[in-house]
């Protein structure tokens, strides 16, 4: 039986698109856990990657970093990848997805990264759907694939020096996305803006896990910075800023908690 190529409306994230492709393959008798990513999927990802790479040069936000198509997409650009109209169970704005999709650890999402990560997702969907207990149970398959990504991140964090390694990877992704700033009033200290902190707040699901809103979270982080002598809360230039060191400390502490989970 020939696997038909579905029409692709361009509206939702590329992870959902990979899930849709795998789900489509589930009904194909030739699909197997070892199936390669279909060529039309590679073509679609390549086309969308090039579109974003080209359009990004016209951005007016001077806080965002700029990259070349060969280097890769920044986090903000990665989050705008759109390839289908169906939502799967794997969000882009998730710490597991964001870390694991950056395959070469450079803080950017190259086309090679996207193809490799897409193949991983596609293979996982096909593998789980081939199991008798869950075959055809799409929501169960969604949960299993997402759980596999979470476990992979958990294993990374639990490896030797894993917490520091994962924290460094997230820091690199965030600082590749938006520029680090320095101020004459705080020499030798690198700062990030509240938008960068908010991205970290969202990908780590702080609101859900700690029941705290972002403004409260940001205020607490700034207070911690002042307590450590890293910033002066009375300095108006720093109203929207946070020392990078404080965010790095938070990320490390966050993953200390992650490693204690039973996954």
Biggest β-sheet: strands ordered side by side in the sheet: 3-4-5
Q: What letter string, H or E per element, gives the SSE order?
A: EHHHEHHHHEEHHHEH
User: Helical proportion?
Assistant: 40-55%
End-to-end separation in angstroms reads 39 Å
> What is the overall number of helices?
11
What is the radius of gyration? 20 Å
Class by SSE composition? mainly alpha
The general outline is globular
User: Which spans of ≥5 residues are poorly predicted at pLDDT below 50?
Assistant: 1-12, 28-34
How is the biggest beta sheet arranged? 3 strands, antiparallel
Number of strands: 5
The portion of residues forming beta strands comes to 5-15%
Mean pLDDT value: 81
Number of domains: 2
Report on this structure.
- The chain has 263 residues and is mostly helical.
- It folds into 2 domains: 147 residues, no CATH class; 80 residues, no CATH class.
- The chain has 11 helices and 5 strands.
- The protein is globular.
- The N terminus is likely disordered.
Which helices and strands occur, and which strands form pairs?
Blueprint (H helix, E strand, L loop, with lengths): L11 E2 H13 L12 H17 L19 H4 L3 E3 L10 H6 L10 H19 L8 H21 L3 H16 L3 E3 L2 E8 H10 L2 H5 L3 H14 L13 E3 H16 L4
Antiparallel strand pairs: 1-2, 3-4, 4-5
Helix pairs in contact: 1-5, 5-6, 6-7, 6-11, 7-11
Task: Quickly describe the structure.
This protein is mainly α.
